[in-house]
Amino acid sequence: MAERDPHTPPERPSNARPPGVLSVPEALSTPESWLDPFGWYAEMRETEPVHWDADRECWDVFRHADVSAVLSDPETFSSDPRNASNEAFRRASEGVEMETMLGSDPPKHEHLRGVVEEHFRPRAVADLAPRIEEIAEDCLDDVLADGEMDVVADLAYPLPVIVIAELLGIPSEDRETFKRWSDSLVETPTERSEAAAREVEDRRQQTLDELREYFDDLIDQRKRDPGDDLISKVVTAEIEHRPLSAEEMRGFCVLLLVAGNITTTNLLTNAVWTLTEHPETLERLQSEPTLLTKAVEEVLRYRSPVQALGRVATTDTTLGGQTIRQGDVVVLWVGSANRDPDAFERPEEFVVDRTPNQHLAFGRGIHYCLGAPLARLETRLALSALLDSVDDIEAVATADGLTPVRSAFIYGVESFPVRFVAPGSDVRRPPPA
């Protein structure tokens, strides 16, 4: 690869959209390619494992060893988008990550994470199990008699959003609004044009304005009358002997709400999607439910709900034989790292009892996903409830009929209809078309 002058922008065709690292790479610009990016990953791991994308003005990193190395080195690779030389990346990150642990570096990262960390440790999360089981059963009770359901709308979305809403102390009845907000914040233009980019950016700004208003009202309420929910915890917390700023309080609320439902929604949907593709594994899990823990880990590897993470180089460095300049944005393709044959045997196969399974779906290092224990528990308990409640689950649509989530880094589908037989019901599956 020819060395570039970091002070000279790459040439760009006049009809291209403005540079945007959060846009989907050209190779994944169709719904079909985003639903199945794994062939492109394999090609890039083999030919250009650290690749400069001139259109998006960022480095793409594909191998497990390189992705892991970057995630483990926050001193060289910052999580703060304000360090980026890519203006579009800075602009796209404003408002959501600026005052949260997600977009902070040490020592501020540790101070912010410490505000809520105790509530997401495995022991604390385990106390939520009875309530999670109750919510999962309620969701399934609403659809069992029908013999069919949309996994996203009927289970994978409502379950985690009810859980995080109750933890935050906000009305779960507002969950349709929460979904619209969450979808907007991770949305990527479906067309590579300036008009499409502006439309998404405008919609995102409107969402941020609505979120600010919504949470500012709740924060004011908790200041007057604190309770035992997470918003009250944030409002009354201190870091370095000072109360949190308004931006930090608001950032916590937005991050917990969005991250608290998006990852689990897509993890659970991807799990059902994968299991319907492997009916023999589905049957095995029904007879060996103790395998569910390993099954969730394998779904995290095989169809990671977060396919990419962004970092910014804080100094000139070398990665995979390429010179990374200070301020360069580095996109870590976690979904590719989790299919790397140098890290996993038979990486393209879904191996339900894979051991060991050193996937990077929840990241690594200081930014390892705070909500990982909760996402794992919600997914395992929801799958357990589903497998206990129904038999013969099968997908209604083929892969060609699925619509990917509109995001450059979230991997999942907008809808996943299935049909099943509920034990003891009179529902009989119709013959294949």
Q: How many helices?
A: 17
Count of individual beta strands: 12
End-to-end span in angstroms?
Answer: 51 Å
Helical coverage, percent range: 40-55%
CATH-derived topology: Cytochrome p450
Strand order of the largest sheet: 1-2-10-7-3
CATH H-level homologous superfamily name: Cytochrome P450
Overall outline: globular
Second-tier CATH architecture? Orthogonal Bundle
CATH class group: Mainly Alpha
Topology pattern, helix = H, strand = E: HHEEHEHHHHEHHHHHEEHHHEEEEHHEE
| Radius of gyration from the alpha-carbon trace, in angstroms | 22 Å
Low-confidence spans: pLDDT under 50, at least 5 residues? 1-19
Fold and architecture overview:
- The chain has about 425 residues and is α+β, with helices and mostly antiparallel strands.
- It has one domain: Cytochrome P450 (Cytochrome p450), CATH 1.10.630.10.
- Helices cover about 45% and strands about 10% of the residues.
- It is built from 17 helices and 12 strands.
- The strands form 4 sheets. The chain has a 5-stranded mixed β-sheet with strand order 1-2-10-7-3, with helices on both faces. A 3-stranded antiparallel β-sheet has the order 4-12-11. Strands 5-6 form a two-stranded antiparallel ribbon.
- The longest helix has about 30 residues.
- It is globular, with a radius of gyration of 22 Å.
- It starts with about 30 loop residues before the first helix and ends in a 12-residue tail after the last strand.
- The N terminus is likely disordered.
